[in-house]
Amino acid sequence: MIYVLNKKDSCGDTLLRHINHLCALRYGLCFCGQSSLTGLAPLEAVLFDIDGTLCDSDPLHYYAFREMLLEIGFNGGVPISEEFFIDTVAGKHNDDIALVLFPGDLERGLKFVDDKEAMFRRLAAEQLKPLNGLDKVRKWIENHGLKRAAVTNAPRANAELMISILGLSDFFDAVIIGGECEHAKPHPDPYLKGLEALKASKDHTFVFEDSVSGIKAGVAAGMPVIGLATRNPENLLMEAKPAFLIKDYEDPKLWAALEELDKATSARSV
Ligand SMILES: [Mg+2]
């Protein structure tokens, strides 16, 4: 049986590959477990989170939180650990972070996170770098004429600064801010608003995200989410049910999935 499935035809393709391809076209499924993107054909739009997804900004956020919390003697003067940062801060909205860090004094918490964002912007202006392969995926999206939006829990000043530093100001058709929606991520609101701004269907759109909170938001909005394992542990990200995880935009898994999606689109237009 295995021999038959793996026997190559005159074009060098195996029967297993043909079955995979047919199933992918018909059901948006892939037996290899690699991609559930083919069901989106023809693709219409791509939505991106910003922090940790367009750029590896979490080390800058972690540094700013750690130094500023140390300055005020938080945690008895012991610097916060990276685990604490991942559990309490990464991908979350500032109002929620303020509540957790300063449970008895929300006003102080909100002022603290505002000051921390100002420190982050100073660091970002000097040190922010795009994620590996971002330029390649940007070109792929432009060449395919797809709509695109950034959807983030970051404050607007941060979001616009990062997009500008990365040279993507003209790339995005819309920038959706979690704090300007009724609910921020992990609620689906920001992603639903992104679809609405682009006039795109959830059935023909996928999301790039790097945090548990963000993946949950994209999945709850009804879209497949490609998880970027930039900083957050893979086992934690998998709990939020991404379509699959990649290391960065150079990851062959991503390009294999996009190639399958292209084939599915061509097959449907015949
Ligand atoms: Mg993120």
TrEMBL record:
One Gene Ontology MF term: metal ion binding
Database matches in InterPro entries: Beta-PGM-like (IPR051600), HAD-like_sf (IPR036412), HAD-SF_hydro_IA (IPR006439), HAD_2 (IPR041492), HAD_sf (IPR023214), PGP-like_dom2 (IPR023198)
Cofactor(s) demanded: Mg(2+)
Sorted UniProt keywords: Hydrolase, Magnesium, Metal-binding
One protein family per Pfam: HAD_2
Keyword Iron: no
Keyword Metal-binding: yes
NCBIfam families: HAD-SF-IA-v3
Protein name as catalogued: Haloacid dehalogenase-like hydrolase domain-containing protein Sgpp isoform C
